[in-house]
Design goal:
Elements: E1 11-16, E2 22-25, H1 27-37, E3 39-48, E4 53-59, H2 62-75, H3 102-111, E5 114-120, E6 123-124, E7 130-136, E8 142-153
Length: 157
Amino acid sequence: MPTLVRATTETLVHIETTRPTQFIDITDRIHALVSASGVGCGIVNIQTLHTTTGIVVNEHEPLLLRDFESTLDITAPIGGSYRHDDSTVRTVNVMPDERANGHAHCRALLIGASASLNVVDGALRLGRWQRVFFAELDGPRERVVSIVILGEPRSCE
């Protein structure tokens, strides 16, 4: 039975966003972490630590990224009517400096908070055009992504 490399700590990647909606390519950072991990075959899990962000695997093509943003604008528009933003009825998890961000929570629901990707032969396994994006849905803000890599060690030959 193979010995598994166990992550003793997570890696936290800090991201500073600059726009209300933004797709930031974090693929190269993940490639570097996988390469340095010593894992030959396994899984890398990428998870945002925020409820108004997401993790997306798709193509890095500028017009397509604009299409993603347009789709989110249509599906959950900024300035739409969201019960989450109604301070006269909302009583749970309310902060004094609360933003009106019901749209961002709804967008995050559509995108998802994490992605688990394969590590094969010591490298992140992605398709030809696939890239990993951190999706900011309520920026600009300082954000954090948790990355954990688990798997079998590379064989020492």
